[in-house]
Amino acid sequence: MSEADTTQAAATGTTPDAGEAVLPGAWGLGLRRGALELKQFFRQRDQVLFTFAFPVVFLTLFASIFSDDVEGAGITASQLYVASMLAAGVMSTSFQSLGISIAIERDEKVLRRLRGTPMPVAAYFLGKVWLVLVTCLMEAAVLLLIGTVAFGVTLPSDLTRWLTFGWVFLLGITGCALLGIAISSLPRTGRSASSVVVLPFLVLQFISGVYIPIGDLPGWLAGIGALFPLKWMCQGFRSVFLPDSAAVIEQAGSWEPGRTALVLAAWCLGGLVLCLLTFRWHGRR
């Protein structure tokens, strides 16, 4: 028995046998589960292609069609779309992908079989978190590369802006992933998951400043969009990659970093509560 096992035994008041294996904890199993999720994801080439091509194609289309200067902001419309599509890509990879994939796994009884194994419940969700984190980072790198090469976006040299990118990115991923897990319980079958999950995400993109500048929206629609995390992720990423002069396009005329952090953190807590209240391991049929 190793020194670590002896210490653990002393702390718990138990004495494991000399040949007894020490099982990994939830964090270790979550990391292994994440590696498995990533391996399965990259083996499905059509899913990989769609996940990374979706924001890139829409960015190219909108940035090419609407390439004029934004009046009074000191930027072009294409630069504006780079930051907005980065937020949409994060939500697509976390909220939409998780909501659909978990609903399908529930319908195919994968969740039921996992629930019957000794694997801690937390390890399953940690595996999903690792999958979302890695894919979102790769997707963000691709979008920023295209934005800098094709559309004139300048990467910030200020450490403060990169720190802002970090907390907007992490809070956005966390909140959207939790909402994806929560909405996965809404579809009755795996076949209906795409319809149930895609519709609210598509609506949010139009009222959160992704495709249409927030200043061009009716006030009541912009108010509804401000209730959800996508609008604040868009605004947070714009504050990182656009000059300060571009803040005039926002509803408040400023980047509002404090309010952005508050709303995204609130959605992290709200998403966690929704998951605890709604998540099911078994289908409703």
Automatic annotation (TrEMBL):
The chain crosses the membrane at residues 48-67, 79-104, 125-153, 165-184, 196-214, 261-279. Its main location: membrane. It comes from Streptomyces sp. gb1(2016). One of its GO terms (molecular function) is ABC-type transporter activity. It is found in: Cell membrane; Membrane. PANTHER family: DOXORUBICIN RESISTANCE ABC TRANSPORTER PERMEASE PROTEIN DRRC-RELATED, TRANSPORT PERMEASE PROTEIN. GO terms for biological process: response to antibiotic. Keywords: Antibiotic resistance, Cell membrane, Membrane, Transmembrane, Transmembrane helix, Transport. The lineage of its organism: Bacteria, Bacillati, Actinomycetota, Actinomycetes, Kitasatosporales. Residues 46-282 form the ABC transmembrane type-2 domain. One of its GO terms (cellular component) is ATP-binding cassette (ABC) transporter complex. It comes from the Bacteria. This is Transport permease protein. Belongs to the ABC-2 integral membrane protein family. It is a multi-pass membrane protein.
